[in-house]
Amino acid sequence: MASQDICVDAWSLHLLNFIDDENNNKEGKRNYLGWQSTCNTVGQASGVFTGMSLLLMLESHNFCNKYIRPIFSFKDQAYGLIKFSNFLLFWGIIFIIVTCSIALFCREPEGSNDDRGKEGVEHFTIKETYLSVVKLYRRSSMWHLTFILLTFSMGFAATASMTHLKLIEHGITKETIGLTAIPLILIQITVPFSVTRSTTSRKPLNLFIYSYIPRLIMSLVVLILIYLTPLFHIAETVKFHWYYYLVLVLILSLNEALTSAMFVSRQAFFAQIADPRIGGTYLTLLNTLANFSFLSFNSINLFIAGRISKIKSLTAKLDTYTLMVICCTVLGVLWFVLTYRAMIRLQKISIEKWHLEKNKKFSDADIDNKEERDGELVSLSVSPITA
């Protein structure tokens, strides 16, 4: 699965990195690489909806009895329309069929209509590919980008990892949460298309930068809604007034729009700076750093929340969720202040500075060679970028 993910990333770079003679920009090329992030985001959103939200709804007997079976005049049952095992089997077969079809029937031209085709495409061995990744980290810009990717998620960790848990705690069922995910999926699909002007520009990371603080603000808005949720209970029941769900979906949609904007912006920047010769490896490396940040901070947040919940003096007036969201928001603001200039300067670095030297093979001697190139090696920090 991981190998196929790398191949798809590399394939997308190859397909979208070409010259458009009819619509050349000032640099002589029409930048289509920004569309890689759009394809990536829309594809992932569709897959998550099919594999998670749709599965939860169709597997739930409560949801099926309430919304689906009455349409066809079916009797209520103690099980859903599908079983998890059958769901996995069906999509496993589809996965194999699609993969084999691409391998057997999809043909690509030998050459390429971009500038790589004129020079010839270099082919690296597995060893040379790993050595080339190590060589990338001789540049200070890669260290700065790595630091940013490993730390940016701290401001949203509490909202991302605990919001659904608090909704369930207040009486919102898993099936209802699955239903609220439907408009969020639509947001994830439409946002990438609405921001293509930004993601296909020379500075696609601007959208990521200027969405950061609004997303922190939305985390506080979500916190306020969760805090007020018990007030929307219908008296002497566990149900909620219909307008609560409307407000919930609206606020979660706004938060999701900012999240999707940051994701597609980040992906567009990755596609723009990735060296086409190791494009799939390059993108996978950067995506792995970002995903590791998201998962690790979520895990750390849940661990700390579990410890705090046992300290009665801290949770006497404010619950654990409120404390964690406030702390994460403060950390997010501090992070943004410290890294803002670094992120701005990252976009000012020429694309060539992010690439490997052309027509150069790598050996073990490259790892031992400490001679400085393309700027001196710097330690991991958030100081102004000089590369």
Overview of this structure, please?
The chain is mainly α. The protein has a single domain, classed as Growth Hormone, Chain: A (Up-down Bundle), CATH 1.20.1250. The protein is 68% helix and 0% strand. It has helices at 2-16, 34-59, 61-68, 84-105, 115-119, 126-136, 140-151, 157-169, 174-194, 196-199, 205-228, 242-273, 279-308, 312-315, 320-346, 351-354, 364-368. Helix 2 packs antiparallel against helix 12, helix 9 crosses helix 12 (242-273) and helix 11 (205-228) packs antiparallel against helix 15.
Unreliable segments of 5+ consecutive residues: 25-29, 112-120, 370-387
Q: CATH fold name, please?
A: Growth Hormone, Chain: A
CATH architecture: Up-down Bundle
Give the helix/strand class: mainly alpha
Give Rg in angstroms: 24 Å
Shape: globular
The tally of beta strands, per DSSP, is 0
SSE order, as H and E? HHHHHHHHHHHHHHHHH
Distance between the termini: 35 Å
Give the percentage of residues in beta strands. Answer: under 5%
* Estimated helix fraction: 55-70%
User: How many domains, as an integer?
Assistant: 1
Mean of residue pLDDT values: 82
Tally of individual helices: 17
CATH class: Mainly Alpha
Largest sheet: none
